Amino acid sequence: MSKMDAMRAMREARYEQRTASAPQRNEARKPQEPAAPRLTEAPDSSSEPEGVPLCGHKAISGRTCTRDRGHSAKSHRYS
Fold first, then answer.
1. Class of residue 65 by CB neighbours under 10 A (exposed 0-12, middle 13-18, buried 19+)
2. Is 28 left (phi over 0), alpha (psi -120 to 50) or beta?
3. pTM for the whole structure
4. Are 33 and 20 in contact (CB under 8 A)?
5. Averaged pLDDT for residues 3-29
6. Residue 66 neighbours by CB under 8 Å, 6+ apart
7. pLDDT tens across 18-62, in order?
8. What are the start-end ranges of the H helices in 1-79?
């Protein structure tokens, strides 16, 4: 038996071992209730000047875009 054959046999044995125990774990799980629908939050209007709706795009850091809604600029301006 070559080294590759031995490695393949070990990999198949580990796979069989995992798949043999997998149904037992899945059966033990409780069925989950459907998740409640997510509500989208409106952009924070406390820093928004009156009458000018902001873009509201959120960055990964959590900051929001301060440009006007529907701006034609390719990038967002965060504050």
1. buried
2. alpha
3. 0.34
4. no
5. 81
6. 47, 54, 55, 77, 78, 79
7. 888 765 655 656 666 666 666 665 555 555 456 678 888 888 888
8. 3-28
